[in-house]
UniProtKB/TrEMBL annotation, chains A, B:
Binding of substrate, residues: K108, R256, N257
EC class (word): oxidoreductase
GO biological process, one term: glycerol-3-phosphate catabolic process
Boundaries of every Glycerol-3-phosphate dehydrogenase NAD-dependent N-terminal domain copy: 4-160
Lineage: Bacteria, Pseudomonadati, Bacteroidota, Chitinophagia, Chitinophagales
Keywords: Lipid biosynthesis, Lipid metabolism, NAD, Oxidoreductase, Phospholipid biosynthesis, Phospholipid metabolism
Catalytic residues in the record: K192
The name this protein goes by in its record: Glycerol-3-phosphate dehydrogenase
Gene3D superfamilies referenced in this protein's UniProt entry, alphabetically: N-(1-d-carboxylethyl)-l-norvaline Dehydrogenase, domain 2, NAD(P)-binding Rossmann-like Domain
Family designation: Belongs to the NAD-dependent glycerol-3-phosphate dehydrogenase family.
PROSITE patterns: NAD_G3PDH
Annotated organism of origin: Hydrotalea sandarakina
Gene Ontology terms: cellular component: cytosol
Amino acid sequence: MPEKIAVIGSGSWATALVKIFSESGNKVSWLVRNKKQADYIVTNKRNPRYLSQAELDLTFIQPTTQPADALLQANWVIFAVPAAYVQTTVQQLKNEWMQQAQIIVSIKGFVPGTGKIPGQYITDTLHLSNDYIVLSGPCHAEEIALHKYTYVTLSGQDESKLIQLQKNITSPYIKTILNNDAVGVEYVAILKNIIAIANGIADSLQYGDNFKAVLTSNAMREVQQIVNKVAPQQRDFFDSVYFGDLLATAYSDFSRNRTLGKLVGRGIQVRKALQMMEMVTEGYYASKELHSILQSPRLNVPVINSVYRILHAHANPYYEMKLLEQQLQ
Amino acid sequence: MPEKIAVIGSGSWATALVKIFSESGNKVSWLVRNKKQADYIVTNKRNPRYLSQAELDLTFIQPTTQPADALLQANWVIFAVPAAYVQTTVQQLKNEWMQQAQIIVSIKGFVPGTGKIPGQYITDTLHLSNDYIVLSGPCHAEEIALHKYTYVTLSGQDESKLIQLQKNITSPYIKTILNNDAVGVEYVAILKNIIAIANGIADSLQYGDNFKAVLTSNAMREVQQIVNKVAPQQRDFFDSVYFGDLLATAYSDFSRNRTLGKLVGRGIQVRKALQMMEMVTEGYYASKELHSILQSPRLNVPVINSVYRILHAHANPYYEMKLLEQQLQ
């Protein structure tokens, strides 16, 4: 039986998810921001601003601006808004619209000012079961639009639910794999952006691949330490859901976070650099939130600390990198 | 007291090592291939063909074509020839020229037709102690020429010798770190080239970053499995000597091995593709040697096996990748 799936969010990634679930034959109710956008989608079978190269099959998609319409009767509710909008999104929602549904979270970034990962924040705030599922990459939405072969990982405690969700994804270019570590996966998806910023800073300060390979491998170990501390459980960081995701972002020349690092590394003030970025740069906020989380378990994480000092405490990128030259192993 | 160091090899990497050790104030006797090359170096203070951008300080460097001249009285003998030339190089050498010296190996690749890693082959053939030191990256020689900050790892069983060698490296842009796993480091340096070939094949078959991140993380796990099998000992693959080196090659767009993969992925015959490459492509030979080594411990290494079949058993790259789409996790 086809399922009813609600997707909350209207960016590139939400659009990619709507595409995947609708073309798999599920009914998708899609909660978008405004009526103009909803009308455009119905008329043009595309999202006007994000991932507009992807054609959508409106037979299976119902865009709406009314949260209750989107959520009532949905078996699955997918949160796919940018982390910066999680709070305002959740404020519009009511617990009773989602009591029967399984929550799925596909958001990269801490919820600003809370020190919480999105799944935790959403389920806590809406008083829902915290047995949520995380849907994650490594995936660039643009490649989904092009039907490039992509692995999607579903993470959660309840394997039977993961299997049920897996059955609702039948796009031929998508392979789903299952994992039991929703919290760890959310953390890695956040922390990788800080590594990308560190690499961008090193780029602008003329470090070569030799050093960046060392910087990245050290940073990867820092990520492991942090995740094992905040969410202790057995995990293999070489699984593609962790490592592939880290690789696709942290070592990619093209990520927004790396670009922010490059700007800051060139000596541009952080505030100015953020203004120059057209989209939200998650790593900037992640670095700040993480700093408060890391106050009590004092870990040896020099790369993460260095990025924090550069972005949030006016430290000089040149001297911070000189310091890292001596600290990294 | 300055040490006497012999460097065997006249490619880019050997030149980078001559530069590092000579500018650190050691006397370097440099065994090069022919008199013309030796004369050119003396006259022009550069290697004519490889890494010629690096200026060399001839006060400390003695180029020679006579093995005995180079090796007698050397405290350290560094082998830095391409793997393909290890056998012919060793044939010219005598055990008695090196009995007092510590052997250092800085070669990436199996010794063709032997299934042996270079350190093992050299010490076995010359009846030397097999307690050799491996000197490794992540390092591109070109970045050494530019004085880009670089970590060099010294691996071996005898820590006091590693510390002694470390003291002979004082270039301000080089940091040395120590490691106790010479054999594992040699293996990783070889296997990473096979991953680079796999990524090149995926490039030409139009796979995107989503899939290549999964391909690479799976391949990294295969490398771990193999190394843990052939050289069992405790090691952290996220150490920069393993992981940084893997990263700098396996995921770089610019490696020779990746280029070979791209050519083959485009449907060019392997023999033709090899001819098109101007330099030796280690991964091609590594794939073949590894296949015979892996006959007895049957490991689950689909990426490594796939590259073998494509390069050495006429398998079709397109179908091999389709198979991997289903096998990777």
